[in-house]
Every structure is written in structure tokens, then in C-alpha cells.
Design brief:
six-stranded antiparallel beta barrel; 198 residues; ATP_synth_asu-like_sf; Elongation Factor Tu (Ef-tu), domain 3; alpha+beta; Lumazine-bd; globular; 15% helix; 2 domains; Riboflavin synthase
Length: 198
């Protein structure tokens, strides 16, 4: 479980493909607290298990199923990614509860700067836009954000200067795809409603 508060920006140092088509990523991350084999780390919003650690580089293995629903197919050597280590039960929740289970990607339609902040407009699939509510929470590339507006199949978020500079949003451009995780409360409420009326 995570909070959607990014603690570090990592860099893809190397990548290889396994015989079973799983992808191996070697991620360089300085200034993170100790990482051990078996730990969970949210990598741009995707909860991944550390399978090896050598100095400042940790290794994760990713299945094809995860690659299909996320933007990990764009991860090349030198790519910057958001990192967050799993939370402790005693931690203060500064963002919102995030599982690291990416639902799908959303595409950036526009980035507008306003008084130092950046308003980002995103295109979302029909199946997921219903989980997105004004003033509700979403996770984009691992970052907990508040939804500003929802119109048809588009929604906007406002990113303050601190968050912009402390995450990989500073590197994003129009047409880029971001990993989306919908709010877990909305997910479970939808499931309960479906069972009630079915």
C-alpha cells in the first residue's frame, strides 16, 4: 500500500527481456532508504517487487499483463520514473490510499501553466471516467492528485510547482501516456452497487 507521495525520481539504467517475455528493469535510485529483495516499490504507480539490489540499482521483473495496462512499454534506458516505497501502518497519509494496481493509461491532451501551477487535461476511457469525480482522488504515474473537473471523457488536474519539480511531470509533454489508478473506494462502491442490482 502506498500514499501517492513521491520520494525519489529513478532512472532506467538497463532493460532486458526474459525467455517468457517478462521484462527486467534495472532502476538507479539514489537517496532512497534501504531497499531489500522482496520489498514493494511503486514505480510510476506500478507496484513492483524488488528481485535484486546492487549498490544504488535495484531490479524488478514485470509481466506482460502489467505492461499491457501501463506505460511500461515506453520505458527505455535513461527514462525517469517516480518512486515510492511502501508505507507503514504508522505512517501519516498525506495523499490517499494507493494500491499500485494500474487500471489503464490516460493520454495528456493539454498542459497549461497558470500562476506557476500546471493544469493538465487528460483523455480517459469510457469504462474508467465514471470512477473519476470532481474533487475526488486519482493516481497518475504514482502521484496522488485531486480532480479539478470532469467533462465527457476528459478530466483535469492541477499540479502545484513543488509537485511538478519533485516528480516526472516536469518531463511530460502533450500526447504522453500516464498510468492511472482509480480511487479504491470508488472501485469497491461500484462493485457493491453492481451486486445489489444484479
Amino acid at each position: 500500500m502506498f500514499k501517492g507521495i513521491i520520494t525519489n525520481i529513478g532512472t532506467i539504467a538497463d532493460t532486458t527481456t526474459c525467455s517468457n517475455s517478462d521484462q527486467i528493469f534495472h532502476i538507479e535510485a539514489q537517496n532512497l532508504p534501504s531497499i531489500n529483495k522482496g520489498d514493494s516499490v511503486a514505480c510510476s504507480g506500478v507496484c513492483l517487487t524488488v528481485v535484486d539490489v546492487i549498490k544504488d540499482i535495484f531490479t524488478v521483473q514485470v509481466s506482460q499483463e502489467t505492461i499491457k495496462v501501463s506505460n511500461l512499454n515506453t520505458w527505455k534506458i535513461g527514462k525517469k520514473i517516480n518512486l515510492e516505497q511502501s508505507m507503514r501502518l504508522s505512517d501519516r497519509i498525506d495523499g490517499h490510499l494507493v494500491q499500485g494496481h494500474v487500471d489503464k493509461t490516460v493520454q495528456i491532451l493539454a498542459i497549461n501553466q497558470n500562476s506557476g501551477s500546471h493544469e493538465v487535461k487528460l483523455s480517459c476511457s469510457q469504462e474508467l471516467i465514471r470512477f473519476t469525480a470532481k474533487k475526488g482522488s486519482v493516481t497518475l504515474d504514482g502521484v496522488s492528485l485531486t480532480v479539478n473537473s470532469v467533462i465527457d471523457q476528459e478530466f483535469t488536474v492541477n499540479i502545484i510547482p513543488y509537485t511538478w519539480q519533485s516528480t516526472t511531470f516536469q518531463y511530460n509533454k502533450v500526447n504522453d501516456y500516464l498510468n492511472l489508478e482509480i480511487d479504491m473506494i470508488a472501485r469497491y462502491l461500484d462493485q457493491l452497487i453492481q451486486h445489489r442490482y444484479n
